[in-house]
Amino acid sequence: MIFIVYLDLYDIPSLLGAAVGMPRIVFSMARDGVIFKFLAQVNESGTPVVATIVSGIFSAMMALIFDLDDLVNMMSIGTLMAYTLVAACVLILRYTRGPDDEEITAEIFDLRPHSDEAGVYERMRRKYGLDLPPTDVSAQRVVYFTVIAVFLMFGLSMLLIFCQSCMSWWGYLIMGILALFIAAACIIVSFHPQTNQHLVFKTPLVPLIPFVSIFVNLYLMLKLPSETWLRFAIWMAVGFLMYFGYGIRNSVQGQMVAGTPNTDYERFENEELPAAHVNIDEKIKSS
After folding, report:
1. Measured CA angle at 192 (ends 188, 195), to 5 deg
2. What is the pLDDT of residue 86?
3. 214-265 per-position pLDDT tens digit
4. What's the predicted TM-score (pTM) here?
5. Which whole number is the average pLDDT over 30-35?
């Protein structure tokens, strides 16, 4: 009984914390254009009023429809999926060509020895472009091995969770093979060149930490009930429909990559702030 009460006391602040952060997330997505832009409207003090009201109404409706356990499971699977995507993005971006890699590539071309003077290992690294900063080809290889490793982790997690009672020697053999292939993918990715772009903070032990993070998140996600996965699939379908129907054509980041500027967003960024908001900024600077 005490344990159940403790879980309820823990879950309620977690849900409230997610509800408090939701307006800012909705506001940021609306500013980018991934969701409807009217949600990015702010009042004179700079508070996203529309996003706060809409997200509050949506949270109240969800609380009326679902039980607390269902909401907690939905929040858990969404958080774990977000952490999985973050770990995958950290892994992929670390091996993607950055703006600081152009000059370093030219310097390496000038300094590396002639092909006749290089050893076997050096010639092999040169053949696959592993002695240079990241290229499009090396980054694509990292993406391939990451996707393969994720599918292998998914299969290994399924065996660990759903086949414990029927596990025999063949099950342990399959698990060992899957773990060996995952470790091989991690080692192969580690041989690829990383970007030299200067950042304030970089995740250490890449690709080990992203690989471990993805595996733990997938394992915990598969431990959740099947009803949670069904609700999550429906919610993802709604999100994909909104993104491919609206967001992909209005996203600022997507249009920056395509080279077509978003005039609506530029007009929103360059419009004058309300007088109250300007006075607040001036007071903060003067203090």
Report:
1. 145
2. 95
3. 999 999 999 999 999 999 999 999 999 999 999 988 888 777 665 555 555 4
4. 0.74
5. 89
Radius of gyration of the chain, Cα coordinates, nearest whole angstrom: 24
How far is 276 from 271, CA to CA, in rounded Å?
15
8 Å CB contact between 47 and 280:
no
Residues near 34 by Cβ (< 8 Å), separated by ≥ 6?
243, 247, 250, 251
Terminal CA-CA length for the chain = 52
Tens digit of pLDDT for each residue in 188-215?
999 888 888 887 888 999 999 999 999 9
3-state SS class at 185: helix
> For residues 236 and 78, is the Cβ–Cβ distance under 8 A?
no
Encoding tokens for residue 282? 């001036």
- pLDDT tens profile 127-137: 555 656 788 88
Residue 59: what residue type? S
**Cα separation of 157 and 31, whole Å?**
38
237 by DSSP, 3-state: which?
helix
